[in-house]
Amino acid sequence: xxxxxxxxxxxxxxxxxxxxxxxxxxxxxxxxxxxxxxxxxxxxxxxxxxxxxxxxxxxxxxxxxxxxxxxxxxxxxxxxxxxxxxxxxxxxxxxxxxxxxxxxxxxxxxxxxxxxxxxxxxxxxxxxxxxxxxxxxxxxxxxxxxxxxxxxxxxxxxxxxxxxxxxxxxxxxxxxxxxxxxxxxxxxxxxxxxxxxxxxxxxxxxxxxxxxxxxxxxxxxxxxxxxxxx
Length: 230
Ligand code: URA
What we know:
Layout: H1 3-8, H2 15-23, E1 27-29, E2 32-33, E3 47-49, E4 52-55, E5 62-67, E6 96-98, E7 106-112, H3 115-122, E8 130-136, H4 144-150, E9 153-154, E10 159-160, E11 165-170, E12 173-178, H5 185-191, E13 197-205, E14 208-209, E15 219-221, H6 224-228
Parallel strand pairs: 7-13
Antiparallel strand pairs: 1-2, 1-3, 3-4, 5-7, 5-15, 6-7, 8-12, 8-13, 9-10, 11-12, 13-14
The structure holds uracil (URA).
The site of uracil has 8 residues, from helix 5.
């Protein structure tokens, strides 16, 4: 198919944007800058816009990791172990993290080399619920539930968070479902009540549940039906 057709078929670009991207030489096919809209692309062509990989052009990989405490959601870190170092596979530099977790947060982490798939999973417009188990220092009051539903104003981003569903499980534990993934979002939400999060564990992202057979630090490839569910 023609490159301009491939790009404008994607939900993220209009025809006008595609024309601009090509003129501005921001599109690469198999590593080469391309401005000709008529160039033919195939399933195995690698297609990138700026730093974003739109089509990997080689086997796509999807992994589910049980992130342990004490590792960084990054591909490289000078001080701490990274989640990528837990993956004992070739070409781990191709993988990126779909939805980062803080250093001490545990649970479901997805790694892939498919940029479109991870975008669908993480962009707020998709409204896929991310479900966390939370333990806090102070008691969690019933009045929290309404506030989580109404949203929290985050001055730094100048936005109010989307409605979130909080279910109380015990005096200091809850299950929280949010549709965004803002920086330290859960901690900042509880921070509004001066209540420190002591334990945070991601159980689910949309239809994908952390496999209970995975111990912290272990990972497995996603099943085809899990990949298609996103
Ligand atoms: N919210 C946080 O505050 N930390 C995480 O790791 C994930 C969500």
